[in-house]
Every structure is written in C-alpha cells, then in structure tokens.
Amino acid sequence: MTFLEALKRVLVGRPFETESLKRTPLRRLVALGKVSSNALSSVAYAPDEILLTLAIAGMSAIHFSPLVGAAVMVVMFVIIASYRQSVKAYPGGGGDYIIASTNLGPRAGTTAAAALLIDFVLTVAVSMSAAAHYLVAALPQLQGHRGEIAAWGVALLAFASLRGLGRSRWAQMLPTYLFVAGVLFMLVVGSILAVTGQLGQAPSADFTIAPQAGFEEGLTGFFGALLILRAFSTGSAALTGIEAPQSSVPDMAPPRAKNAASVLVWLGILAAVLTLGTLFLAEATNMRLVEFPHESLQLDGGPIPEGYFQIPVLGQLAMAVFGSGTFGFIAILVLTIWVLWTAGASAFKSFPFLASLLAVDGYLPRQLRTRGDRLGYSNGIAALGIAAIVLVLAFDAHLPGLIQMYVVGVFVAFTLSQLGMLGHWKRRYVQTPSRPARAKIVRSRLLNLVGFVLSAAVLVVVLITKFVHGAWLAVAAIGLLYLIMFSLHRHYEAVDRELAIDPNAEAKALPARVHALILVSSVRKPVLRALAFARASRPSKLDAIVVDTEEERTQRTIEKWNELRIPVPLTVLASPYREVAPPLLDYIKGIKRDSPRDLVVVYVPEYVVGRWWEQLVHNQTALRIKARLHFEPGVVVASVPWQLSADTHGRALFDNDFGTTPPTDPSKDPQ
Amino acid sequence: MTFLEALKRVLVGRPFETESLKRTPLRRLVALGKVSSNALSSVAYAPDEILLTLAIAGMSAIHFSPLVGAAVMVVMFVIIASYRQSVKAYPGGGGDYIIASTNLGPRAGTTAAAALLIDFVLTVAVSMSAAAHYLVAALPQLQGHRGEIAAWGVALLAFASLRGLGRSRWAQMLPTYLFVAGVLFMLVVGSILAVTGQLGQAPSADFTIAPQAGFEEGLTGFFGALLILRAFSTGSAALTGIEAPQSSVPDMAPPRAKNAASVLVWLGILAAVLTLGTLFLAEATNMRLVEFPHESLQLDGGPIPEGYFQIPVLGQLAMAVFGSGTFGFIAILVLTIWVLWTAGASAFKSFPFLASLLAVDGYLPRQLRTRGDRLGYSNGIAALGIAAIVLVLAFDAHLPGLIQMYVVGVFVAFTLSQLGMLGHWKRRYVQTPSRPARAKIVRSRLLNLVGFVLSAAVLVVVLITKFVHGAWLAVAAIGLLYLIMFSLHRHYEAVDRELAIDPNAEAKALPARVHALILVSSVRKPVLRALAFARASRPSKLDAIVVDTEEERTQRTIEKWNELRIPVPLTVLASPYREVAPPLLDYIKGIKRDSPRDLVVVYVPEYVVGRWWEQLVHNQTALRIKARLHFEPGVVVASVPWQLSADTHGRALFDNDFGTTPPTDPSKDPQ
C-alpha cells in the first residue's frame, strides 16, 4: 500500500484542493484560443482527406478540391449559426447531450452522448495519428513506427492529464494562436509568391495519379457525383470541434451568451480562411496526395522511388513556400504537432467531464464521477486513454480509416442537437404570448431547422458514401455504447427504487432481538476482545461457536474455554467434511427459521499482521467466512481486528487490550 | 463461485467424510507390499547409476559393479538393523523428523524434516523420470519428450492424489508384489540360461566404452578409488525409501513393533536379491551403460548408430532373457512403470503428511495442516506437485543429475535419525536400573552407533565425491528450507506469545464505553438498517458521519437526514482532497485521543449485488474503507450488508427489512 501510494505521489504529484477549481471567467480572446484548438487543428488533416478522396478519380479530379472545401465551409457556417442559437438559449451551458436530452428525452440524449463520447475518443486518436504523421515528416528516421508513436502520444497525453498538466490558460491558448499565425503567414507569403509567379512546386508535383478502376474518365456520371459527395463528407472532418464553445459558456465573462456567440463566429472565420487557403495553395503548387502512394502514384509513367514518404499537406506547402529544412518548414511542423497535442488534451478534458455528467445521471459507472488527486476525473481519463490507444493501434495510425468513424460521430451529435433546439423553440413559442418575441423565436427556429436539415443531410451522405469504408464501425460503436448506457441506467434505477426509504413505514424501526454469535477458532486474545465487544453491545442472546474441523483442536478449545470460566455457552458444530462456512450457515439458517424477527450478528475475531508474507502464512479462514456471510440475508458481520506487532518489535506495539489501561498522553496527565 | 465449485466437484469429486479415515490395521504381508514400493522401485534405476558411474573408467571398470552393489547392500542391512531399533523404541510411530527432534532438539529435527521434504520431492521427480525412461523404451516414437512425459506424470500423480485415488490397499500392494515377482522370474530364468550357457547378449553388448580423460588406465590409483566411492554413493539411491516402514508402525496389526521390524527385514532381503541379481545378470549379458551414449560408446572403433536410444538396465535384461518385443519384455516394462508410479504416489502421501505435522508444530504455513475434500492434504499435494514438476523440467528428466540430490537428502535424514536414537538410548540407559535391561540397551545403542557411523560416512563420501555434480544443490535446498522453517516458527511463536491469554488480567474485562459511528454516503435503506442495528446494541455514544467529498451530494444527504427526522446527530467531515478514508481516520484518532478507553465501532452499510458486472459498477468505497480501518488499532468494523435483488426480479427478493413483518411459514401459523 505505502509503496503504491509513494509511486502514485511520484507519478501524479501531491493532491490539489477542490477549492482550486474555482477560476476567473474567460474573456473573449482567451476563450477563442482556449476552445478552438480542436476545430482549427483539423486544418492539419481535413484538406488532406479531401485531396486524397478526389485523387481516386485521377489527375483531373483534384481540381475540384477548392469547390468541395467551399461546400464544407458553407455547411460549417450554417451549423455555427444554429449553434449561436443554442448558446443564447442555454446561457447556463449545455452541450449537445443536455440539449438533446432536455428537449427530446433520455433516448435521444443518450444517443447524442454516446456519439460525443466516441467522438472524443476519435479526436484523441486522429490528433495523435496526425501528429505522428507530421513528426515522421520532420524526422524521417522514425518511418515505419507511426502506430507506436501515436500510441505513445496518447499515453503521454493521458499521463499529462492525470497529473493535471496544461491546465493554465496560456498552455491552451498559445499553441492555437501560434498555429493560426504560422499558417496564415505561410498562406500570405505563398499567395504573394503565386501571384508574382515565384511560387515553387510541391515535392509531389512531378508525380501523376493513376485513377482507380471505374474512374478512367475522371469525375463523370453517377459515380463521379458520388465521389464528390464522398470527398465532401470526408472533408467534413474540418467541422469537428465547433461544438466546443457551446459547452464552455458557463466559463465565459458576461455577457456570456453574446461572447460565446462571437467566439463561434470568429472560430468559423479562422477555420474557413485556413482551410480554403490551404486548399488553394495545394492546387497552386500542384500537390499530389493519395491514400496509398506506392499503388496510385507514378513518376514518368513508371513507379515512384522505393522510399517515398508522403508528407501531409501543411508540410508540403511549407516546403514549397519556405523550402525543405528551412526554419519556416520546421516551425510549421512544430506548431502543427503542438496544436494537435492541445486538441488531444482538450478531448482529455471534455470526455471525462461528459462521462462524469453521465455517471451522475446514472448512465455510466459511478466510478467516473469522482475527481482524482489532481482534480481530473482519473477514471474517465484512463478509459479514454485506453480506448484511443486501442483505436490507434488497430488502425496503425492510418488517418483515412479513422476519419470515417470521426465524421459519423460528429454529425450524429450535430443532428440531434439541432433537433433538440427545434423542440426547444416549439415550447418557447407556445409559452411566449407577445408577437415580436414570437417573431424572433420563429426566426431562430428557422435557423435551427436549416441546421438540422443540413447536418442530417450530411449524415445521410456520410452513411451512404462511407458505410462500408468504416462508418459502420462508428454506428456499431454508438449503438453498443447506447445499449450499455441504457442497461446501466435501468440497473441503477432498480437499485435506487429498492433502496429508497418509505418514511412512514421504516424510518425508525428497530430489529426485534439481536442474536450474537462469536466465531471461535482458538481461545486467544482476539476472541476475548470480540467477546468483550459482543457483551458490551448487550445482545438478547449470545453464543460462542466452534466448528469441529479437527477433533483434537476442538477438544483443546473446549478445555481452554472451561478453564477460563468464560460465562458464555460454547456451541460445537459438527463438520463431517472439515469445512467451516457450511455448518455455520446451516446454524444461522436454523436461528432465522426458529425466530425470524431476530437479527443475527456474527462477530469474527481476526488478527492483522503487518507484512504480506505474514498475511500469507496465516489461515485465511476469517476472510473466507466473511465473504460467504456477506451474501447471507439478515446477517451482520462485525469484524473485530487485532493488530499484531509480532516479529517486528518482539512485543505488542498496539496494546489496546481492554483490560489494561491504555497509554495516555503524559503532557495531559494532571500529576 | 458456483461455477468454480462445480468445476471442483467434477475434477475432485464429492467430499469424503472425516470418519472414513479410520481403517483396519495392516497385517505383515499387506504392510510389506504397501510400504516397500518406494524402496524396491529403486531397482529400476539404482543399478543403472552404478554401471554408468563405473563406465567413466572404461570397459574394465564395469566388472566392479557387483562388488559396489554388495557394498551398498551391506550398508543397507546395517541401516535396516538400526531402524529395527527405532521401530521398537517408538512403537507409537515416529519418522526421522520426530526421532531427531525428540532426542536432538528442534534444530536437528527441522534439518531432518527439511531433508525428508526435499527427499520426497525427489522421490516423485526420480520415479517419474525413470518411468518416462521406461515408457520411451517401450514406445520409441516418444523419444525426445522424456522431460514433458515425466512432468505430465507428476501432474497426473498430483491430480490422482487430490482425488484420493489409489487409497485402497490393493492399489498399493499389487504393483509391488507383481514387480517383485516379475523381476525375480526374469532373474531366475536368466540365471538358468546363464548357467546353461544359453543366455543371450544385452542389446548394448557389441559396443565398447571409451574411458574419459584420466581413466585411460582403468580403475587405478587415487582417482580410481574415488570413482569407486562415487559409484557406491550413487548406488546408495537403492536405499531410498527404507525409512518408510518406520512411519507406518501405528497402522500395523499388533504386535506392531515386531511386525514392523520383520517388514524391514523382508524389505531388505527383497531389495538385496533384486539389486544384486540385476547387477549380476547385467554383467553376464555384457551390458554397456553410460551417461551420454553418443559421446562415450563406440561400435567397432567408430561412432554408434545415430538414432541409438539407451534402454535402462531392466529393459535390456528383459530383451536379453525374453527377447525384444516379447510378452515378457513388455510385462517387465509395464510392471516397472507401475511400481514407479506407486512409489511416486506414496511420496504424495508422505510429503503432505510430514508437512501437516510440521504445520501443526508451526514450522510450515498453517494452510498445509488441513485435509481437503477427499481427505488428502490438498495444499501439500499441490506444493509437492509443483516442486517436482519444476525439478523434472529443470533436469529434463535426466536421472544421473537428479540422483545426486536424492542421495544427499536420504543420508542427511538417516544420519540425524541414527544420532537421535543414540540420544534416546542414552536417556533410557540412565533411567534403567536393572542390569540385564541395561545390557540390552547397550546392544541397541551399539547397533545405532554403527548405523550412525556408516550413514555419516556415506554422507561424507557423497558430499566429497559429488558436491560439484549436484549434491551442492541438495545442500542449498535443505539449508534454505531450514531457514524458512525456522523463521516461520519464530514468527508463529511470537504471534502465539502475543495472543496468549493471561487469565488473571483480562479474561472477563469489558471495554469502558462504546462509541459507535455510522458511515453515511446516501440516505437509503442500508443506512437505516445499520442505524437500527447500531441503536439496538445501545452504544454509549452514536454519531452518523458523512464525508464531504462532493458539496452538492453532501447537501442532499443533510436535507434528507433532517427530513426523515432521524434522531442521531449527523457530523460532516471536511475533505479538501475528496478522499473518504483519511478524514474518517483523523476523526477516529481524535476520539481515541479524547477518550482513550472508548472502543470505536464503525458501522459500514453496504449493498451486495448479485452479478460480477453489477459489483463492478457500484462504488467500491465501502470495501476500501473497510480495508483501511482493518489496520487501525482499537477499531471494530461492523459491516451491515443489504442484499440487493434489483435487476434480477425487479423487486426485493430478500425483504428482510426490520420494519416489515418477515414472512413466516404458513404451515406454522396458528390461524
């Protein structure tokens, strides 16, 4: 115990007081930096996904990428507009889970929560996989270890969260703003170079893309349209994280709702500029990105070089704009990894927080509701870490696979949240008599309706175009989580019902009589202590019990008992099969049969030794009996421990025997 | 629990009653068959060891084998003669451990016991390794798997012992007598053939033995003499098991001591006839046996065939006498394997029995003293099985390696036992006044003195000639076991001293006052039950405690408490670090400081759920608190369980709440 505790102290640090949770409210600029790392870090992988999906149809298709990006951004602004409604409607805070469950009932709420939980796991998995990708781009000698690097990244994140690292606002704000500044600077420089015709080519510009079977003609016909939809739905990964400002409304400085709404707008503007700018420059530098480079890329009609490693979009852009190995290139990679780490860290806050809300509501195990030593919800952090590591290793940090699941979760939550807002406005409309107020509600409702239709449409598109590519896994995971959460809730409710108190019937009732039993194995001090305690509690009846497992030993016990003239009758229970628990249970059942109103209390004398090997070499009978009695209805087990000091000091350290006068503090002694 | 119990029933069978241990006394012939399997089965490997040790010095040396065998037999008869003294001196039974500890004190006794325990492990390891060797001789396709076969043999033996198989007298007697009859028949037939000049050659007769470096001249000089001593000490493996009749004296029919003494003589005669006969026939059939055939054997000056497998002595004899593959050959192999199995099974009785004696005396963990369901000492059986499997696998069932350890253990026990008898006679001499009786004692003492000198001499020879060959391992094992046993004994003694009752001081003392605490986490039925029980025991002071880990929850608890008007004060303990146990322990320490004579009783309400996953999803706080309080001196923990039926039947199954009238048997209802 003490060794484990010491280890925990070294790893986790000394505990923080609950008081230190209280913090000053967030001003707008701080809030923007703090909550947008998740949404903005998707610039590090969402453009890549659009490009490589379009590349399935070959060289001509990739020129559609800015168009697809623009469509994604349109959807984003609609959703942001509807989230501004939610923020104003729930200024006390409330994520998609609360909005959905308040307005649509627990089933929708649980579904939204399940989707969000899956989402947070994927935020971590995707962020760390992308970070591993950028790290390998910076340090080519790490090639071939992306899965492990990403898994270690997750483990490090979990550890940092357990220690409560990165809780300061600067740690959350700085990487976001630096990343935005760095990428913006690159986009501006790149655009100037492009306009002046001085922009270099991307390192992959010389390759040609071989279209996959069925797309030899480029993006034409039904399948061409479907592929554009697929690219659009994959690119929707850029929208992950825009729900974050909504749940941090309570932390904002007043006017909370207004500040949160403006944070949302600024978040959208930054995301749009970065995403579209990146796609534009990728097009300008003739970047070629495919899912499997060695299968789909060609160089002068032949295969590409053996060791070719496909650097992600921001990395290739930095090479084209600043040149490979320059300070600018390294800076972009470092900032990208840092913002991805921060996005992962934010999920390590959101997941345990949502899990604790769900645990309080009885949808997840109770263990998730308690804060650990450093104020993080330790169990939730551990659960998230394990789930993300499993995902990262299962997909070997391959982003296109993970993204498919990600988008499903995000849009399930969006859709349910918007639907919830529709319900909210409907109720508000009914409750509101004044006409101008009603008109405002109608406008808000219309906005949420558009948001709902659009996000539902995207969800349908995602499910249609990517079901077999991995979306089914997300659907299955959400469904499974939903089932688990619902069964748990039913179980907790049943327990609560059973344990609830009926004030009239039972509040002050007392058991009729107490029948006390003392379990005797050998007549030594612990037995006397148990006896003394049992007699002090004045039971209606008091029996000492010895189970006859060994004739000789039983005989010795009886003799000793009589010799000491202990004024309590000693009952010997026969045990033909040398067991202790069954004869005792039979005896107790007999008592309960004869006098059903009696409460049976079994006093178990135990001695406690200090070291683990000492514990091993003493009979574990007491432990086993306690375990068996635990499941016996109407039986109270009183364990009377005797703390041994034998072997350690040669004499009793804790001499608390009742007969002797206990040591008193000499300074308090009146003598 | 129930699944494990069912599994145990299927594997082990239903329990036997303790009563069935009582058995009718053994008559002489039955006793001889029952106790001599261990000693006589050594004919299956001891001659081999003599032959292959001598073979180190080449062809000429192996002719010394009958001489070495005869020397071993002389030692055996001396030791048997001295054991006859022990049997008469201890007609109540008493193995080497009891004789050594009674007469020489606990240190010698513990050493003898350690040696014997190591011995029994080696009996099993050697018997199963030899059996595996014979099995491979019978089924050549098993070659190369001797280690695994022997390990499986040990496992099967352990399993059979746990099930209590082979407890009938026939199962112990039959294989011994059949083995003796079979080998005797072979020896007689072989001798007749030899005398008439019709005896065939052993399958290894055509080989020549290349002497090892230093022995090119055969058995000459100092090293020659040393090698003969080595062969002698290795051959002393034939003496293992002759101590067995001594410990079964109490089972004999009267006159016990006399019967046991005559069993010893007959055992010696049979062992001598079989061992010497085997060595004689091996010589007559020109058998060549070496430790590593492919290194030391030659055929016509060149290497022996690639796949040559060295069949052990009894197998080669059966081939020479009856012919390979004949019924006689197969019968000898089968009987040999059977008697080796029986010898192993006997060790699975002796080891756990000795271990239980040692456990009763406090030299081994208490768990070894209890009989299992089928009356075997299950823990001892398991310990022996594991130790023997480790040995067999470590030596890959290579007999020459194992035998070295075996002999050391046997002779340490012999020597200490004889020394103990010397002490015994000395005391008897002093106590005996009459001259003729004294003369008898002097004679007995002389016999034991010879026995002591001879076995000590053999021990010294063994240690000198084989220390580096493996004897050191036995010495180390005995030493280690001795240390463990002594530390354990010291520990148990210290515990006993500490727990012993001083009848004058404390037998009937009662604690001054009882201060009861009830741990409240939420105000539900279990708390009310704990409260009812605590009040029923009428403590001097009663407090309800709530630890404030979550402000909101604590507030709810307080409100509910007041609402129900529970007439017990509710104390709220602050917990800045959200822990439950530390504030509680601080509070208890405060009570103990203020009124040191008070007994503190903590009532812990608990609810017990039925299924493992239900157990997982409920807070384990109660368990953790109980574990912490267990180590706190002067605190009694009363666990008040509430058996939940939630989820299983939708309503309480065990409705034992005190307020409602419990269900009564309608047949007993007077209405």
User: Spans of chain A with pLDDT under 50 lasting ≥5 residues?
Assistant: 646-671
How is the biggest beta sheet of chain A arranged?
Answer: 5 strands, parallel
Task: Give the spatial strand order of the biggest sheet of chain A.
Answer: 6-5-4-7-8
What is the end-to-end distance of chain A? 41 Å
Could you report the average pLDDT of chain A, rounded to the nearest whole number? 84
Classify the oligomer.
homodimer
Kindly report the CATH topology of the largest domain in chain A: Amino acid/polyamine transporter I
The CATH superfamily name of the largest domain in chain A is: Amino acid/polyamine transporter I
The helix/strand class of chain A is alpha/beta
Radius of gyration of chain A: 34 Å
The tally of beta strands of chain A, per DSSP, is 8
Class of the largest domain in chain A, according to the CATH hierarchy?
Answer: Mainly Alpha
Largest interface: A-B, 104 and 103 residues
Subcellular location (chains A, B): Membrane
Keywords (chains A, B): Membrane, Transmembrane, Transmembrane helix
Protein name (chains A, B): APC family permease
Membrane topology (chains A, B): Multi-pass membrane protein
